[in-house]
Amino acid sequence: MAPSDAASTTLASMDRRHFLLKRLHSLSGVVPVGAFLLEHLWTNARAVYGRESFNRAVGEIQALPGLAYIELFGIFLPLVFHAVYGLVIAAQGRPNVGSYGYTRNWLYLLQRVSGVVAFAFIGVHLWQYRVQKLLGVLPWEDQYAALMTDLATPRWFIAYFLGVTASVFHFANGLWLFGNTWGVTVSARSMKRSGVLCAAVGAALWVLGVNTLLHFSYRCGGVVPMPEQELVQGNCHNPDDLPLRNP
Amino acid sequence: MGLDTVTLKIRRGEGPGPSRWETFKVPRRPMMNVVSCLLEVQKNPVTADGKASTPVQWDCSCLEEVCGACTMVINGRVRQSCSALVKDLSPEGQTVVLEPMSKFPRVRDLVVDRQRMFDALRKTRAWVEIDGTHQLGPGPRVSQEDQEVMYPLSRCMTCGCCVEACPNYNDRSAFLGPQVISLARLYNMHPSGSMQASQRLDALMGVGGIADCGKAQNCAEVCPKAIPLTESIAVLGRETLKRALFGWLLKG
Ligand code: HEM
Ligand code: SF4
Ligand code: SF4
Ligand code: FES
Predict the structure, then answer these.
(1) Which CATH class name applies to A21-233?
(2) Is the predicted ipTM greater than 0.85, yes or no?
(3) How far is the CA of B223 from the centre of ligand 2 (A)?
């Protein structure tokens, strides 16, 4: 064995930071970022039961002690880490579905595309609601009305539809990747089964998220009709009914 | 229509210099493979439009898909040219497109330098160490069960198909590729090789190691030896994790 070999092996054995950083990226996609996605879609889905129900659900969260710290350290910073490092990882790959059009190779490409779409979407989404609240343009309670007006426009509906679809796909395929990365699914058979399971989780989440969007958009004469019983009071076409922005 | 010839379109060039496409028409014979087409070009290096050219350079050795030397990109897909039959590639006289592998530096025409793969073998000590030339007696026995896992892994010929098809193995990343990960698994299972098991795991935890796989799984799809590369990556993903988390407890 040449001395240079020994040196390079010792050097390699010292450096586990790269490995740990990658595993941290993988973990952060599931907890806390993925867990937050679940919670967020679940809470928003309460809108289907009406304005009060939605506001109560949001109110419960806003009453959590130390919410600002949870949001900053538990959600925002992990998301920024995952997203920025995700962009770095994506930039290091050279997708080649043209030559090798296998399913997993497409999913590899879509994982990166959906990550970038989710990144743009989350940026716009935060600006549109969170930053506007911080700036005092939107009220802290009762965002229901603002959501209705925005999602009634085909432009925003399409943007949210794409954003939710990309985020949910990214999370569901990410769960599959997570299981494989962490050595849970090792055999070809378990990888296949996990694929079916993750697709089911993704489909359920997608229906949950898109249903909420349809609800908001329909109340304001949006794209796809909802069941008749949803058509009760509160129509955002009448701006006197619902204060949209702070005066 | 014209089934007395085979049309070859070949990407040619020297080293990192510019590439050019040249088309050759060679006499078609039964049971031809890509290597025998290239032998015809060598005999008569004149392009399809009648210009005198130079013989196309390529590598080959075993001619039975066990050495991996003749690997190239054929009709956009990486494979061995010795086992690529003209009757399958061009049943109705379709042009056969030949390119060198894109993930390695080109030497000339279809010949590339696969040094990066051999460097990866060295980094991961993907071999069994011998500690002397004296008689060591018979080696330890390997269980039937382990043999069944190890034999398929041992068929790797370092041909480069897997890394050519891997989206994460490229000039922007230091990824060592699926082949050495699978070989590290093989030698970690080997009774003598397992003495360096932790060193191999450590090497795979560095930059370019196992964590740089993006799970596109092209590698296992294109491997001519049907080596379960994705399974090896998952198994060593588990082993490296155990070592990263608990290695210091169990004696780093
Ligand atoms: C909606 C919020 C997000 C969630 C819930 C999420 C979740 C996940 C999960 C669970 C994984 C699998 C980790 C693994 O490989 O084991 C993952 C991977 C990945 N994420 Fe995200 N992510 C989100 C946002 C983003 C953003 C904004 C980007 C930026 C482009 C991004 C880029 C990536 C990339 C490139 C991978 C693949 C990593 C690899 O294959 O090595 N993600 N994500
Ligand atoms: S793993 Fe398969 S494709 Fe990769 S070098 Fe070995 S034989 Fe070739
Ligand atoms: S599974 Fe990993 S090693 Fe195999 S082709 Fe995909 S990224 Fe490359
Ligand atoms: S010449 Fe050995 S594999 Fe083709």
Answers:
(1) mainly alpha
(2) yes
(3) 5
